[in-house]
Specification:
Distance between the termini: 31 Å
Strand content: 15-25%
Number of domains: 3
Shape: globular
Number of helices: 17
Structural class: alpha+beta
Radius of gyration: 26 Å
Number of strands: 16
Helix content: 40-55%
CATH class of the largest domain: Alpha Beta
CATH topology of the largest domain: Endonuclease, Chain A
Strand order of the largest sheet: 4-3-2-5-6-7-1-8-14-13-12-9-10-11-15-16
């Protein structure tokens, strides 16, 4: 019987804001919330590295170690020695590193020493001839799992720049991670297993703990968001948080490159009275990125978003805290490369005590930051906070954990494309990008006229490479199709030979 409109609305469960928000988060992030966990904030390498070392040294069954970058330096060798020693003890040790992240930072001998000790080492997504653009997707996750009992999710890689050097007066990079115990450890371990199978044979089942089998250790509810390329789960979640925040939304990001849709979300929240703040590096390991990031300040500042630049060493944290209840810590930066192009891992916590700790840490960070404000003629100036805090400027040593080429190219191509197609209004702050784009295009045009071979030969090589790659992929797809057809024919033949018993249900 079909219900009337009145009956439908009288029999339905009453609308509850909390239930609605939970449904939004579930559908957006694609993962349910997990109860009964204990989460601890770990600030900088001074808290993260010792906690990692202690847990790995106490491992009795396995260690799962995943890092975008693992430098072949003092910090990297310390961790490699621990991993090798545990493998020699008979502990199952698995390590995943990213090919692009480790390029030029870690030698083959470094990884071979680990393999010789019994560590299973896998490299994520090295270049392949049959996939010219396959290298764009990177494994930007950073996690450690030990015995299915404790896991770490963090923004830190392994390297001396995160640790700093007091003797040489080198401050450590500012970064944030967390330790997790409880059922959510199963979700974090499942994320590691996802990348492991993407690089070769799958993990044995006894190394993938079921979260239902893990005892509760606290009262913290959280979601483990294991982002994959071209899905944008965390991007949609970040958009939803910007839309749902009522009082405050405080963001920290290492490589902020705002895109129009996200900028609009932050603007709308700020104009609606939400206290929106963005903390970014004052000095960065990618100097060009500072100019690109600053080009996106103006629309935020005009809408009431407060922007701060960190003074001192590189700030590499990727965090968010909203309304004193919701918080995020992980590897995802606020740019398209992280949201769409990479494999990322973040933990979203819904707990007031945890959010309060995140807010306190954020306010402490602002004490060592400089606020950026607008002045006449659409220029940006720094407004110093407390006396004694000097604004950092210029590049800093080291190399970061971001696809620098991808981020810059995306931002520049987006701006130049907008100028050419007139699909959106550009602000005066983007003049540097449009000027650089115009010079590059004019230079390419002149080069094509004066030395056409320098342009045509690379284009011919690239197009030939792409053509061969497509032929290889076509051949593989045809072979796969042929195998599926043969399998289906075999199944059909087999089914036809099986005698069928007629029952009363067939009559």
């Amino acid at each position: 019987m079909k219900l009337s409109y009145k009956q439908m609305h009288t029999t339905r469960k009453p609308f509850v804001t909390e239930d609605w928000a939970e449904q939004v988060f579930l559908r957006t992030a694609g993962v349910p919330i997990t109860q009964g966990n204990k989460v601890q904030i770990l600030k900088d390498a001074g808290e993260n590295y010792p906690a990692w070392v202690e847990s790995m040294k106490s491992a009795e069954r396995w260690i799962h170690f995943e890092s975008y970058i693992m430098h072949d330096d003092d910090a990297g060798r310390e961790f490699s020695e621990i991993l090798a020693a545990k493998a020699r003890e008979g502990i199952r040790v698995k390590v995943i590193y990213d090919w692009l992240g480790g390029l030029g930072k870690t030698s083959r001998r470094f990884w071979q020493r680990l393999r010789d000790a019994g560590v299973e080492v896998r490299c994520f997504n090295p270049p392949r001839f049959d996939s010219p653009l396959g290298w764009i997707s990177r494994d930007h996750r950073k996690m450690i799992g030990v015995d299915g009992k404790i896991a770490f999710v963090t923004g830190l890689c392994v390297g001396s720049m995160w640790a700093g050097n007091r003797e040489k007066s080198i401050d450590p990079w500012r970064d944030t991670g967390i330790s997790v115990t409880g059922p959510a450890v199963g979700d974090i371990e499942a994320a590691f297993a996802q990348i492991w199978v993407a690089t070769g044979e799958p993990m044995p089942n006894d190394e993938i703990p079921e979260k239902e089998s893990i005892s509760q250790t606290g009262n913290v509810a959280l979601r483990v968001v294991a982002s994959i390329p071209n899905v944008g789960g965390l991007y949609r979640l970040d958009q939803q948080i910007a839309a749902l925040a009522r009082h405050s939304l405080w963001l920290t990001d290492a490589y902020y490159v705002g895109i129009s849709s996200y900028i609009q979300s932050l603007k709308a929240a700020a104009m609606d009275g939400v206290d929106v703040r963005l903390l970014v590096p004052g000095a960065t390991d990618i100097p060009v990125l500072r100019t690109i990031s600053r080009a996106g300040y103006k629309p935020l500042l005009e809408a009431g978003v407060r922007v701060f630049e960190w003074n001192g060493s590189m700030i590499h944290a990727k965090t968010a805290v909203a309304d004193g209840h919701w918080a995020r810590v992980g590897s995802t930066n606020l740019n398209v490369a992280s949201w769409i192009g990479n494999y990322e891992l973040d933990v979203v916590v819904e707990n007031e005590d945890f959010a309060r700790e995140m807010e306190d840490m954020y306010l402490a960070d602002l004490e060592n930051s400089t606020e950026i404000v607008l002045r006449k003629r659409w220029k940006i100036r720094s407004a110093a906070g407390k006396q004694g805090h000097k604004s950092a400027s210029g590049p800093i040593s080291g190399t970061g954990s971001v696809g620098r080429v991808g981020i810059g190219a995306i931002r520049i191509s987006n701006t130049v494309g907008a100028a050419i197609t007139n699909r959106r209004i550009l602000g005066p702050a983007e003049i540097r990008i449009t000027f650089a784009g115009s010079i590059a295009l004019l230079g390419l045009a002149m080069l094509s006229i004066l030395a056409p071979r320098l342009v045509t030969v690379p284009i011919a090589i690239i197009t030939g490479w792409f053509g061969i790659a497509l032929l290889i992929k076509t051949w593989r797809l045809r072979r796969r199709r042929r195998r599926e057809m043969e399998k289906n024919e075999g199944d059909k033949t087999y089914n036809e030979t099986i005698p069928r018993t007629i029952t009363g249900n067939d009559v």
